[in-house]
């Protein structure tokens, strides 16, 4: 094995020495950035709805939409971060710039929540009217939140990719280490979330939000300093250009030749890639094959290389086809994250109205999501230690395929919404019998555990299934983009939640002066909203089954290895 890594360079731009760069130590520094990003983002998101309602005096539905729009924007901006990393900055600079933006946004939020001038007057329980935050106060809050969203989006698109850059896939030992990196990456995400929903939420409620957000800001600054300390130890991969540009080249070339007929012999289509890096031609999306038809004017000035906007290789066309095949699966996973959004919005509002005392200790409403995160960790442990070995004995395969994991996640989240509807019916009956205006209803908050646990267990399956699916079924040069595509399902899930909330408030009209999502949820019909999500989940799952059946995984002879990470071992993904 060579002392240098073939496709990587060091910080000086020279071939990377495998003995001095890469490996677990630099990868761990990258994980440090991710755990602090997760700590900040989730620490803000899970308890933001109570701040907006209790301190800024905003209506219930408006508070929920602000939270889901904030989270949706953060994940949607991952596409921007991926584009900048692939086209201009590279992953290292992208992480550095957006981590600084995240720290700036968190620092601004610390100041915003600490200054009385940026909050409306305090509202007492006996007050009939509470003055809501004015436009200036909300504007400053929005600026802080969306700086954080920008930082989060830029980081998420590059952190996992830069971490895997520290391992050489051509070295068997490092390839095995990279497998463990994926497992530990998700564990670090879960640890960050667990810390956010326990320690950080407690500090927000009992000590002060400014103190909690200040901790996030300081921890992010420390993580950035540590990240910079590893500059000389990192391996850097050269950018191969923006995959978005490559996709548009194929689409434009095919559009220009839309009136031409694809030759019967596909061997006549243009292909210049070496045999070892070619992707076999497939019959799906044959309209894109026209981009590989050689026509007059494709070569300019006797140049051996064609104009990429006029003529593309079969391999480039097949890469675009591979991305197109992901879209149906992508679309049918969005609703899961809509259900997920309810766990950090309306479910937290439910918890705020219920009995939360355990002895003398009162559980913060936002900390109920600890059961959500615990479900994820428990699911992963049970899957790794029990389900995978059992499945190996019964089926001869090391665990479920990526598509099977996604299916399980969709089923569990739909069940979670069904249970949530039943629990809310119980909570509303208690509110009706004891009084809708009392601050704490005589019903235990632990009734909410099943919905948190089911949706959390669903995330344990669907997150790893989606990540596996989008990475293994995408072209090698488009993995950053496919990761961004995966993250957009989270973004759109939150946006769909905001859209549904707005529609429901308009359509349901008045119910004795209150709609389904009334400002005081004790007067609403949140159970009907949860029931609607459960019905939509059933319909979505049927559509997913059709899409999963239609999907054709990459052929085993494809130039790009179809591998997925499972329990630290590299195995072939049969889907």
The fraction of residues assigned to DSSP E strands is 5-15%
What is the string of SSEs from the N terminus onward? EEHHHHHHEHHHHEEEHHEHHHEE
Class by SSE composition: mainly alpha
Give the total of domains: 3
Q: So how many helices?
A: 15
Radius of gyration: 25 Å
Mean pLDDT: 82
What is the count of β-strands?
Answer: 9
CATH topology tier name of the largest domain = Growth Hormone, Chain: A
- End-to-end C-alpha gap: 33 Å
Give start-end ranges of low-pLDDT stretches.
Answer: 555-575
CATH architecture level-2 label of the largest domain? Up-down Bundle
Transmembrane segments: 62-83, 95-115, 135-155, 185-204, 210-230, 326-343, 363-383, 403-423, 443-463, 484-504, 529-551
InterPro entries: MFS_trans_sf (IPR036259), POT_fam (IPR000109), PTR2_symporter_CS (IPR018456)
Keywords: Membrane, Transmembrane, Transmembrane helix
Subcellular location: Membrane
């Amino acid at each position: 094995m060579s002392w240098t890594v073939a496709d990587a360079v060091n910080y000086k731009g020279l071939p990377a020495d495998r003995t001095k760069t890469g490996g677990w130590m630099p990868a761990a520094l990258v994980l440090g950035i991710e755990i602090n990003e997760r700590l900040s983002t989730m620490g803000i998101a899970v308890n933001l709805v109570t701040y907006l309602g209790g301190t800024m005096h905003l209506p219930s539905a408006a508070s929920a939409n602000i939270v889901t729009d904030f989270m949706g924007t953060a994940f949607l901006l991952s596409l921007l971060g991926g584009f900048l990393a692939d086209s201009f900055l590279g992953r290292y600079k992208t992480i550095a710039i957006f981590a600084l933006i995240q720290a700036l946004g968190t620092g601004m939020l610390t100041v915003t929540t600490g200054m009385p001038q940026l909050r409306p007057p305090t509202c007492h329980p006996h007050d009939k009217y509470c003055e809501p935050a004015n436009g200036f106060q909300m504007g400053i809050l929005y600026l802080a939140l969306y700086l954080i969203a920008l930082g989060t989006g830029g980081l998420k698109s590059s952190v996992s990719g830069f971490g895997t850059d520290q391992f050489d896939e051509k070295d068997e030992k490092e390839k095995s280490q990279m497998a463990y990196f994926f497992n530990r990456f998700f564990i670090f995400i879960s640890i960050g979330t667990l810390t956010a929903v326990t320690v950080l939420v407690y500090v927000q409620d009992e000590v002060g939000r400014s103190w909690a957000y200040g901790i996030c800001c300081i921890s992010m600054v420390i993580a950035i300093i540590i990240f910079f300390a590893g500059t000389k130890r990192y391996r850097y991969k050269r950018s191969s250009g923006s995959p978005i540009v490559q996709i548009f080249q194929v689409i434009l070339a095919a559009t220009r030749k839309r009136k031409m007929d694809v030759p019967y012999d596909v061997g006549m289509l243009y292909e210049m890639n070496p045999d070892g890096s070619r992707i076999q031609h497939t019959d799906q999306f044959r309209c894109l094959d026209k981009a590989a038809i050689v026509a007059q004017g494709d070569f300019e000035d006797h140049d051996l290389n064609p104009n990429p906007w006029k003529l593309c290789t079969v391999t480039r066309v097949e890469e675009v086809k591979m991305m197109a095949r992901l879209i149906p699966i992508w679309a049918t996973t969005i609703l899961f994250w809509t259900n997920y959004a309810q766990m950090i919005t309306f479910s937290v509002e439910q918890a705020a109205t219920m009995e939360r005392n355990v002895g003398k200790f009162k559980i913060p409403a936002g900390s109920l999501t600890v059961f959500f995160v615990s479900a994820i960790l428990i699911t992963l442990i049970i899957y790794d230690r029990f389900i995978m070995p059992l499945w190996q004995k019964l089926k001869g395969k090391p665990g479920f395929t990526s598509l099977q994991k996604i299916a399980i996640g969709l089923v569990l989240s739909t069940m979670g919404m069904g249970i949530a509807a039943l629990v809310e019916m119980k909570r509303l009956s208690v509110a009706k019998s004891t009084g809708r205006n009392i601050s704490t209803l005589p019903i235990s908050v632990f009734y909410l555990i099943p919905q948190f646990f089911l949706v959390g267990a669903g995330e344990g399956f669907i997150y790893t299934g989606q990540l596996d699916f989008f990475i293994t079924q995408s072209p090698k040069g488009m993995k950053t983009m496919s990761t961004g595509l995966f993250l957009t399902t989270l973004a759109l899930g939150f946006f769909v939640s905001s859209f549904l909330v707005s529609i429901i408030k308009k359509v349901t009209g008045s119910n004795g002066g209150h709609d389904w999502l009334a400002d005081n949820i004790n007067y609403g019909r949140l159970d009907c909203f949860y029931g609607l999500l459960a019905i939509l989940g059933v319909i979505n799952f049927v559509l997913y089954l059709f899409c999963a059946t239609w999907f054709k995984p990459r052929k085993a002879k494809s130039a790009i290895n179809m591998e997925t990470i499972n329990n630290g071992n590299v195995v072939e993904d049969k889907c």
